[in-house]
Amino acid sequence: MPPEQDIPGRVLRTLKFRPKGMTITELARALGANRNSVSKYLEVMQAEGHVEGRLVGNAKVYSLAQRIPISAFLCFTKNLILILDADLTIVQANDRCLARFGRNKEEIVGRNLREAGLPVVSSPEALAVVEGLEQEQVITDICYRRDDSREFFYQMQAIPTTFEGGEKGCTIVLEDITERKHYISNTSFLARTAMDLVDLPPVDDIYQYIVDRLMELVPGAYAYLFSWDEASHRFVVRVVAGEGFRDALTELLGRDPIGLVLPVARVFDAPYHQTPGSLRGLQEFVLRPEPSSWSFYDLCFEAFPEEVCEEFLTRFNIAKLCIMGLVWREQLFGITGIFLHPGRELENRETIESFIRQASIALARRQTAGRLRRSEVRFRTMVDSSPCGVALIDRDGRFIYANRRFVEIFGYGPDDAPTVAEWTRLIFPDEAARQEAFSAWRSDLERSVSGQIRPRTLTVRSRDGSRKTVLARAVTLCDGTQYVNCEDITEEARAYRILVADIADLRRREQEMLLKDRAIASTRRAVAILDPGGVVTYANAAFLALWGYPTAEEVQESHFSRFWERPDEIRGIVRTVIDGGSWHGEQTGIQSDGAAFRTDLLGTPIVAEDGRVLGMMAAATFRRNGA
């Protein structure tokens, strides 16, 4: 064989022992051949796939092509592989490809890709990539939707291929990236919903949001959500979703399902024995053709007739029900469910469970926020209705809150003076009084501890110029906030001053009355004090001795007529005196032992400063016979 024709064989044998490769010049020198001839043959051998060339600096280095048998490649790879010739006729397909497409080799080998009708690769998107293939491989993602609406994702590599005879073709490598796509999509979904649930305004319907997101995860299904009212211990239908689902339910039930109260609380009783903990996970119930455990009638807690339940399953072509409780920390907020058609499975189970937990936390947070808002409203209403002025002051001396009574007392509030320093200048226009108030405040604050009440009575000037006496009680709360409670005691202070004066006057009068009482008690005349009804309320020692009674208790609470011989006449005397007159004359008294004696009796009215008769004073003097 001429040396020129043997160059390809000699090149292959030479490169076999030079794994790092050789340049054209090195090969020509080793073969003893013309450099141009070697270069020409190398180009042909590279096109045929026998050698590979790479640039190292300015030189091109050739080495043996690293090739494996196509049969081994097709058998052991997990990807789907199709080999096409230049006309897009299918030359080879591996077993995984045939199994995925549901075809045998005889059905597709030898057929044109355009006419084969294979899933994924015969789609317009895949054909456009293959037909436009040139010298570089192309990688793209292709989405394939099956008749049951399920989506599958593939990464397709279209690789230019040279056959043994030098013919051009194409190798299609399909990698199923559905799980990867779903993972990315689900992760993105959960990240988005987590942010949405945090930012969802209180006025938005969180129940509708939850069901809308479930429909996003399980398109084409039907879904519902029952809310749980802990106070009334009942479930209420909040949302139903799915194409035509609400209208059809309204027709079937004879009323709009939204707002319908259901006896789902029986889920906690026999025979279900569910708990918030058991409802936390996703549960599946096969309903047709044969129920796996409970029938749909049972799962409806017998709230609807059996024929209605059967009509429901038939009309909506329902085969399975998946339910999960909206539970957080053993507290139940509701139950959500998804109805699936025959053959449909819940593909995003873990994502659905994660989302439901997110929603449960959001409901718990919303419920807590709602309780806090209601509590705050009650607190503000209570404080605003308080007869005392109330203010909260932060660590920096700025007003956090002041109720209406606080502003009414001082005439100034946070709108007029946002800081205590500015507010103090208004209510203490006198510099000396202001400094005194500041010093007292600081002194009380330094001596007190958190929670200790610091009372102070202040005299301030209100907006209208009037002077007011205010009792202020300040308390330092645990976070350093100052709580101040104020009372306007201006009238009380005035009344106190009057009371002090009255008490002094009363003490003076008491001394005078004491002298008079002692004078009456020590007089030798028998004296008795009667109330307006003529009942004895007081009798001195001389009266007791004259009538022969040892103690005053035996006389008091008795009518004055009891002690006289002619009671009727004495009653008339009492009436005369109580009416404002006076009486003086002789009467016969009856002692305790029944003995009679003559007395000189004087009756005078006891008159108050305003002219009212308060009672009668009776003074009796013993008269001896003939005296």
What would your notes on this structure say?
The protein has 627 residues and is α+β, with helices and mostly antiparallel strands. The chain is 38% helix and 27% strand. The protein has 20 helices and 24 strands. A hairpin with a 2-residue loop joins strand 13 (320-328) and strand 14 (331-340). Helix 9 (178-199) runs parallel beside helix 14. The radius of gyration is 55 Å and the shape is elongated.
- The amount of helix comes to 25-40%
**Portion in strands:** 25-35%
Whole-number radius of gyration?
A: 55 Å
Mean pLDDT: 84
Identify the overall geometry: elongated
Stretches with pLDDT under 50, minimum 5 residues: none
Protein name: PAS domain S-box protein
InterPro entries: ArsR-like_HTH, Biofilm_reg_signaling, PAS, PAS-like_dom_sf, PAS_4, PAS_fold, Tscrpt_reg_IclR_N, WH-like_DNA-bd_sf
Organism: Methanoculleus nereidis
Domain PAS: 81-113, 375-452
Task: Describe the SSE topology.
Layout: H1 7-16, E1 22-23, H2 24-31, H3 35-47, E2 51-56, E3 59-64, H4 70-76, E4 80-85, E5 90-93, H5 95-101, H6 105-108, H7 113-116, H8 124-131, E6 138-145, E7 151-162, E8 168-176, H9 178-199, H10 206-217, E9 222-229, E10 234-241, H11 245-253, E11 261-262, E12 283-286, H12 296-299, H13 306-316, E13 320-328, E14 331-340, H14 349-384, E15 389-393, E16 399-402, H15 404-410, H16 420-427, H17 431-447, E17 453-461, E18 467-476, E19 482-488, H18 490-522, E20 526-530, E21 536-539, H19 541-547, H20 567-578, E22 583-590, E23 596-607, E24 613-623
Antiparallel strand pairs: 1-3, 2-3, 4-5, 4-8, 6-7, 7-8, 9-10, 9-14, 10-11, 12-13, 13-14, 15-16, 15-19, 17-18, 18-19, 20-21, 20-24, 22-23, 23-24
Domain PAS: 81-113, 375-452
InterPro entries: ArsR-like_HTH, Biofilm_reg_signaling, PAS, PAS-like_dom_sf, PAS_4, PAS_fold, Tscrpt_reg_IclR_N, WH-like_DNA-bd_sf
Protein name: PAS domain S-box protein
